């Protein structure tokens, strides 16, 4: 397998998160696939880096994507970021994502890391999800 379905997976993740009403209420609809330009919103979601491995087997070609979704904000507490992170998980894990190309075989939550920004300012939560995809 190749990196061929990466764009379709990212588009599906972005569409799901951008269209989720609960996440939109928490972030003001700030869901990005590149860091926002200018002044940062108080709380936003960034679809970030991914690592992809070939997972082809006897049943056919496939790839495994470890995709990071970041919730970041300038708020002094983690509460708002954690609520938004929970909304990200809920939005991505149910119902299954539909891809424009290929098919999603499995999507699961792998891990999260919550951290403070530089000099203790701001908050950041990196959520990692594992997606397994295959061509149609």
Give your account of this protein's structure.
Helices cover 26% and strands 38% of the residues. It has helices at residues 6-18, 21-27, 79-93, and strands at residues 31-32, 43-54, 63-73, 103-116, 123-134. It has one domain: STM4215-like (2-Layer Sandwich), CATH 3.30.2000. The chain has a 5-stranded mixed beta sheet. The chain is an alpha+beta fold and 136 residues long.
Taking the sheet with the most strands, its summary is:
5 strands, mixed
From the N-terminal CA to the C-terminal CA, the straight-line distance is 12 Å
**How does the helix and strand content classify structurally?**
alpha+beta
Number of discrete helical segments: 3
Order of helices and strands: HHEEEHEE
How many whole angstroms does the radius of gyration measure? 15 Å
Helix coverage percent of residues?
25-40%
How many E-type strands? Answer: 5
What is the name of the CATH architecture? 2-Layer Sandwich
Proportion of strand residues = 35-45%
Strand order of the largest sheet: 1-2-3-5-4
What is the CATH domain class? Alpha Beta
What is the fold-level CATH name, i.e. the topology? STM4215-like
InterPro entries: Gp17-like (IPR021508), Viral_Tail_Comp_sf (IPR053745)
Organism: Rhodosalinus sediminis
Protein name: DUF3168 domain-containing protein
């Amino acid at each position: 397998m190749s990196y061929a379905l990466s764009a379709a997976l990212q588009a599906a993740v972005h569409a799901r998160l951008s269209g989720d009403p609960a996440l939109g209420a928490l972030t003001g609809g700030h869901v990005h696939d590149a860091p926002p330009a200018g002044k940062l919103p108080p709380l936003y979601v960034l679809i970030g880096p991914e690592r992809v491995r070939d997972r082809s087997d006897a049943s056919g070609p496939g790839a495994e994507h470890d995709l990071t979704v970041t919730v970041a904000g300038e708020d002094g507490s983690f509460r708002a970021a954690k609520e938004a992170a929970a909304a990200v998980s809920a939005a991505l894990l149910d119902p299954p994502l539909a891809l424009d190309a290929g098919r999603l075989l499995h999507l699961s939550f792998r891990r999260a890391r919550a951290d403070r920004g530089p000099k203790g300012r701001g908050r950041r939560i990196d959520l990692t999800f594992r997606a397994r995809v295959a061509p149609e």
